[in-house]
């Protein structure tokens, strides 16, 4: 199934509007482009809604949130909802400060997400469970299955809790993905880019669970593939080879 | 001629003030630095004009436009015009939303560009021709020669229409460049970086047509060279090798 | 001593709040992560202080300064001072425009830096000595020992003057570092990333001079190591291998 959906992305080249943080913009654009999507980044309140409605998917990532960005995110998310364009929310660092907790609430009060993705600490926070976090990273893993299910139920969405095992839930079913590599944790924005790739997969013809599983599994396989490349000698060379792997056939990745 | 002008950039190391989008800032700075220029990025209204007047060239790229950035761009462009510092405008995504169309008009009402560069869809839009676009990318190619000539005439500038064949015009003459590689299209900001490199070339002693041709041709040759590198295995490794190639002798690139 | 302090960073993984410029955010985050720190970037006035107080170090870098960023920097710096969190200031381009000169003064009026780092031109400007600069780069080297000592005295801080030889002073003692490689000068943000790594080292148990020396020396050794890598063929491949080297054992680097 993952093969079929990834191939579909490569045929349709969905335009994904990334309202994301300033740290990862370049990496997210290159990764999404390698994967087969068409990235666009636009943070002005003046045209965020117009671009969202032209797009096949919208990503809202609060990593380096400011008030003007937050206003653009809400405009884009609402506009996407009106046209049934899928919306992914990545609540980066939501547990770190009260400002971020409130910002997420302001978004969710006005925007219905198709999917929410985050690490265990972030996702737990959204349903009132406290896990240890360090800055924007999760330290404890907690019970990811319970967290995914609760987030999906509470926000009427698909939940993707990333970690050594990724857990996906629609509030009833649970799916897990084991593909991946620890070196992803050494590349800034690897979680953020997965949000963009998830937005692209949500434009395909599978069910929401299948689409989310395709994104997580392909991403993990690409990381495994990159880690095996002979020129990889650390996180810098890994990042370049990971972008390469995102452009490969999924059959080649599994081989 | 291209050799001479590129070598001149490497001797003079022109300071280029890049008012560009947030997605490509790092790639543009590294590419321009590899090429031989001295990049500076400054987006504050408070000193955009001062920095423009210290510079040997100014690039205005509206890729992730916001109102504060737009105001800084206009201040920098006007200041550059006063001191005869060359100005390149890259109207990224100008056809995508009315905000971007109006923003370009606000810039052009106050700033005289030395050159305008863009893909066929963007450049066509500037002279009232509608081509198919997708986000910030051009889908149709149209008649690039006609488009280049019309843009050059209408805005009294040099026009560079990028594509499989790049077309350059001053409104009368037409020059074309075939050097290049399709993998450039898989690297975010490859068009944007060409704008920075064009700004550097406009500080040399050739005619405007020669300077623009030198930029486009060198850029294409560097892409070809990078594509032949044995460690290139996809867009991630290509991007790193492309930066390497931008730092090479042009004679080495043609060899 | 450098080995001990770098190993300490890798054990404690200090959370470093980087209020830095938009050009280098991704490179700084990846470099700091490779080195062993935990990067966080947050530029909102709403939570810059909260995040600074959660952190083990704060970096203030004025490379692409705007007024909202400046306000966030001052809030973060003051909050860090209250909790004895070390603060590094990198006065990028401080001599280039009066806005930047004044902005540095506004920061220093409210924030006590643990260390100030910059190139010779920037650091000289802070103590009223004029050196030739070009954009954000220093051209002349001047008497770095005198400059370092004066900056340290005037601002009651540790001064790190970068250059072919890095000079460190606390106002009385002088230490120098010769490790390094000229290719660092071909990678945008290599000076900025050193500021983030210095902030991480300031969280260890050495004296301020030892901590600063550890950062400068490790950084130079990593550059030397990367320059020797067989796949390095220019600044693009060097940058990736340099990130790799930042993740290595310091004993491996010296070998």
Number of domains of chain A: 1
The pLDDT mean of chain A sits at 95
Q: Can you tell me the CATH architecture of chain A?
A: 3-Layer(aba) Sandwich
- The unreliable regions of chain A are none
Count the DSSP helices of chain A.
11
Descriptive report:
Three copies of one chain form a homotrimer. By secondary structure, the first copy, chain A, is α/β, with parallel strands linked by helices. The first copy, chain A, has one domain (about 1-220): Ribokinase (UDP-N-acetylmuramoyl-L-alanine:D-glutamate ligase), CATH 3.40.1190. Chain A is built from eleven helices and ten strands. In chain A, the strands form two sheets. In chain A, strands 2-1-3-4-5-8-9-10 form an eight-stranded mixed β-sheet, with helices on both faces. The first copy, chain A, has a two-stranded antiparallel ribbon with strand order 6-7. The first copy, chain A, is globular. The two termini of chain A are about 15 Å apart. Chains in contact: A-B, A-C, B-C. The interface between A and B is medium-sized, with 35 and 34 residues. Chains A, B, C: Keywords: ATP-binding, Kinase, Magnesium, Metal-binding, Nucleotide-binding, Thiamine biosynthesis, Transferase. Chains A, B, C: One of its GO terms (molecular function) is hydroxyethylthiazole kinase activity. Chains A, B, C: It comes from Halobacillus campisalis. Chains A, B, C: Its EC number is 2.7.1.50. Chains A, B, C: Catalyzes the phosphorylation of the hydroxyl group of 4-methyl-5-beta-hydroxyethylthiazole (THZ).
């Amino acid at each position: 199934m993952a093969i079929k959906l990834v191939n579909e992305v490569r045929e349709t080249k969905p335009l994904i509007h990334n309202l994301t943080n300033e740290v990862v913009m370049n990496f997210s654009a290159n990764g999404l482009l390698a994967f087969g999507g068409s990235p666009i980044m636009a943070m002005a309140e003046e045209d965020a809604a117009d671009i969202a409605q032209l797009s096949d998917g919208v990503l809202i990532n609060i990593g380096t949130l400011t008030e003007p960005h937050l206003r653009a995110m809400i405009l884009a998310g609402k506009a996407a909802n009106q046209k049934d364009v899928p919306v992914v929310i990545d609540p980066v660092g939501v547990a770190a400060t009260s400002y971020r907790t409130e910002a997420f609430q302001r978004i969710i009060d006005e925007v219905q997400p198709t999917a929410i993705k985050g690490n265990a600490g972030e996702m737990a926070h959204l349903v009132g469970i406290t896990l240890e976090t360090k800055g924007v990273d999760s330290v404890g893993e907690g019970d990811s299955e319970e967290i995914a299910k609760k987030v999906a139920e509470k926000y009427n969405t698909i939940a993707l809790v990333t970690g050594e095992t990724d857990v996906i839930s629609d509030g009833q079913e649970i799916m897990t993905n084991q593909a991946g590599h620890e070196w992803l944790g050494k590349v800034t924005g690897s979680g953020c880019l997965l949000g963009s790739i998830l937005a692209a997969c949500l434009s395909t013809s599978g069910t929401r669970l299948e689409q989310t599983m395709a994104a997580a599994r392909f991403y993990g396989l690409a990381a495994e593939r990159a880690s095996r490349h002979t020129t990889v000698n650390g996180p810098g060379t890994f990042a370049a080879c990971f972008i390469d792997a995102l452009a490969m056939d999924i059959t080649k990745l599994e081989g």
